[in-house]
Specification:
With 95 residues, the chain is an alpha+beta fold. The chain contains two helices and five strands. A five-stranded antiparallel β-sheet has the order 4-3-2-1-5.
Length: 95
């Protein structure tokens, strides 16, 4: 298993990164990437287990050094295969 996690919040969305701190349902992630839009996985569970079958169809913006997330609903362990797939998604940015 990769040490990074997929974290789903109530309103801020879904993030992929390393948990630095957890306090109740508040989590601080480092090297955090927002998983804004994905194709090639039916759910976050599948994305965490296998990654995406459509790297080119995903929209994951740049990573930020650190983000504090409130109202965390779900934390998923990520396999090495899935982490490699997520890392393989080209940085999506404005044109």
């Amino acid at each position: 298993m990769d040490e990074r996690k997929i974290v789903r919040t109530n309103k801020a969305g879904v993030f992929f990164g390393k948990i630095e701190k957890k306090d109740g349902n508040t989590v601080t992630l480092s090297s955090a990437r927002r998983l804004w839009y994905w194709e090639g996985a039916a759910s976050l569970s599948e994305l965490a287990q296998f990654g995406t079958a459509s790297v080119s169809g995903c929209k994951f913006p740049c990573a930020v050094d650190e983000v504090e997330l409130f109202d965390v609903l779900e934390i998923l362990s990520v396999t090495n295969e899935a982490a490699a797939s997520i890392d393989g998604v080209k940085e999506w940015k404005r044109r």
